[in-house]
C-alpha cells in the first residue's frame, strides 16, 4: 500500500480556517500529531489480509420488527358518529381555532 501523505501545518491551518476553529500553536501541534497518528492507523488497516473473511451486508441478524398494516373493521366509525360531538364542521372537516 502507498504511504499516506501526512498533514502539514499549512494543511491544518487551512482546515482550521474552513471549520472556523481557533487554535494556538501548541494546540495545533497536538492536533497535527493526533491526526497524523490516526492516518497512520488507517494505513495499517489497509495492510491487513482480509481475504479469508467473507463480506457481510448486516452485522446483526436484523429482521423487520414492524407488524403488517391491517384494518380492524370493528374499530371503524361512520361519519355521523365522528362528527356527532363536533362544535363546528364544514364539508366533512373539523373547524378548529387558529393556533398560529
From TrEMBL:
Superkingdom per UniProt: Bacteria
GO biological process, one term: regulation of translational fidelity
NCBIfam families: gatC (TIGR00135)
Protein name according to UniProt: Aspartyl/glutamyl-tRNA(Asn/Gln) amidotransferase subunit C
Organism: Candidatus Roizmanbacteria bacterium RIFCSPLOWO2_02_FULL_36_11
Amino acid at each position: 500500500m502507498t504511504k499516506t501523505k501526512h498533514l502539514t501545518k499549512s494543511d491544518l491551518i487551512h482546515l482550521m480556517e474552513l471549520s472556523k476553529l481557533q487554535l494556538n500553536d501548541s494546540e495545533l501541534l497536538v492536533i497535527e500529531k493526533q491526526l497524523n497518528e490516526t492516518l497512520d492507523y488507517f494505513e495499517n488497516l489497509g495492510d491487513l489480509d482480509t481475504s479469508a473473511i467473507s463480506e457481510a451486508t448486516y452485522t446483526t441478524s436484523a429482521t423487520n420488527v414492524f407488524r403488517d398494516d391491517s384494518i380492524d373493521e370493528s374499530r371503524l366509525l361512520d361519519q355521523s358518529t365522528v362528527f356527532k360531538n363536533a362544535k363546528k364542521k364544514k364539508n366533512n372537516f373539523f373547524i378548529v381555532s387558529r393556533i398560529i
